[in-house]
Hints:
This protein is of the alpha+beta class. The protein is built from four helices and six strands. It is globular. Helix 1 packs parallel to helix 4 (112-125) and helix 3 packs parallel to helix 4 (112-125).
Amino acid sequence: MNRTYQQLLSKWSTLAPDECVKADHNHKFKVRILPSVEKRNSPNAWRLVTSDNIAWRLANDQSIVLVQLNFVLLTIMHHCAIRHSNISFTFADAGTCAVICNGLKSQPQAHPAIAALDAYIQLLEF
Length: 126
């Protein structure tokens, strides 16, 4: 899961560098904070997210990871809304899948944020 999330964040930073950029390490990324997602004093604020040990942190109730994943999920949902692209989720034992625009479907992922990011990357590549 760490590697998948890291690869998706890396693709996001490549496809939309105004939304996400790679930070100083391979597993650290900065995501632009949208005012409608999170209030900040600066209109140019970024939030640091990490893909390092995410599976372990989720399994051990590390709340900071949930905050980061929820931030990514809300940001992706907001980007979809701006593009007038609907996003939906299906939940199964294999994981969560996200579908954007009734056709761009993610692989089953361990968290809805990762599924949403997977589908959003396909939208950016489209």
